[in-house]
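Lab notebook, design round three. We kept the backbone fixed and only want residue identities now. Task for the bench partner: fill in a sequence for the structure below.
Input structure tokens:
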């Protein structure tokens, strides 16, 4: 992803994400859920569009509180679909609500979304895609790959010469333990 390492530094939206989030391990289930929903919403659009709408997404989805989003009914779905601050795509909104319910189930079975991810790590990308397609909605190869790269489960978020890569390695991402 050397292009991102060249493009992002100094950019108002890409820079902070590149320097402080992209590729670093994520342990909090709400933060993992946020990353999954943002990746789903990026489908067909630019990552810059999603980053510009991120604060509106946080407000609309109550800071990606898994339990709150899992409880959303038709009123909340309608509210989200009329919110011009976010990406108003019914399939993506429905996937967010459905996937919050899935994460609740994963919590019951594995204690957390992160523990579920750790339980299946390491898998090759193709096997992750199959697992996510069986488990979640609106998760294809690119969404799964970016979600796992962005949260430290797959390598490739930064090139080896990017200064951020050393900080990521120091944070012990899951992918670094399988080399």
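Proposed sequence:
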């Amino acid at each position: 992803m050397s292009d991102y390492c060249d493009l992002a530094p100094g950019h108002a939206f890409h820079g902070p994400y590149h320097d402080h989030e992209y590729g670093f391990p994520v342990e909090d289930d709400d933060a993992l859920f946020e990353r999954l929903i943002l990746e789903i919403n990026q489908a067909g659009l630019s990552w810059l569009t999603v980053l510009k709408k991120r604060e509106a997404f946080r407000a609309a989805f109550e800071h990606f509180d898994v339990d709150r989003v899992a409880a959303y009914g038709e009123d909340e779905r309608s509210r989200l679909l009329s919110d011009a601050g976010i990406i108003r795509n019914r399939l993506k909104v429905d996937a967010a609500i459905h996937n919050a319910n899935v994460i609740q189930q994963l919590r019951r079975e594995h204690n957390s979304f992160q523990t579920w991810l750790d339980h299946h790590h390491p898998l090759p990308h193709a096997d992750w895609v199959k697992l996510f397609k069986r488990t979640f909605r609106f998760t294809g190869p690119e969404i799964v790959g970016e979600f796992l790269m962005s949260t430290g489960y797959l390598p490739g978020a930064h090139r080896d010469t990017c200064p951020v890569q050393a900080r990521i390695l120091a944070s012990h991402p899951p992918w670094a333990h399988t080399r």
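Keep this in mind before ordering anything: The mean pLDDT is 96.
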